[in-house]
Amino acid sequence: MKYGQLLLDRREYGLLMRSIAESKNQEDKIYRESLKKLKLELLTAKVFDGMAMPDDVVRFNSVVHISTPYNVTRSYQIVTAEKSDITKNKISILSPMALALFGYAAGDKIVWQFPSGENTIEILNVEQQCNQLLNSQI
Questions:
Q1: Rounded-to-integer distance, Cα 40 and Cα 136, Å
Q2: Strand order in 73-79's β-sheet?
Q3: pTM of this prediction?
Q4: What is the share, in percent, of the chain residues with pLDDT greater than 90?
Q5: What gap in Å lies between CA 29 and CA 27, rounded to an integer?
Q6: Cys staple from 65: which of 20, 24, 110, 125, with CB 3.0 to 4.6 Å?
Q7: Which whole-number Å values give the CA distances from 122 to 44, 99, 109, 110, 112, in the listed order?
Q8: Segment (H or E) for 8
Q9: When comparing pLDDT for 24 and 137, which is higher?
Q10: Cα separation of 41 and 1, whole Å?
């Protein structure tokens, strides 16, 4: 882990926790396992205020370029549940993939449980998009 712990923006942390609390996926086993692992990682997360966040950390609205063990590369934008649209590569923060990536940085490798089984994902690059959506929801 590049920074030794998850890194989160204080306001985004609040939005993440509200999104989880309002989630209707609580019955799904993989989702519950993803939440359990994320909650454990959040216990040691470093929380920043505003502009102090490094640019290479996955957060709301980030476009994340990843590689899987099968040499498949993909790009996803992490968004709130109501903005998700897989046809545009916008995935909900409540998806196992987004829960796995959130707070990690470019260069990190993450081992996570997905519906297809346990996989390792490498974050190749992170691009920050405008956080107007976030600011309007917090």
A1: 28
A2: 90-92, 73-79, 63-67, 117-127, 109-114
A3: 0.86
A4: 50
A5: 6
A6: 125
A7: 21, 14, 4, 6, 11
A8: strand 7-9
A9: 24
A10: 12
Answer for the pair 96, 102: CB distance below 8 angstroms, yes or no: no
Residue type, 90: K
* Cβ 121 vs Cβ 67: under 8 Å: yes
Give, in order, the Cα–Cα distances in Å from 57 to each of 9, 61, 70, 127. Answer: 10, 11, 24, 9
Note the residue count of the chain: 138
Residue whose entry in the numeric block shows the structure tokens 């959130």: 102
Condensed to tens digits (0 to 9), the pLDDT of residues 40-95 reads 888 899 999 877 889 999 999 999 999 988 888 999 999 998 999 999 999 999 88
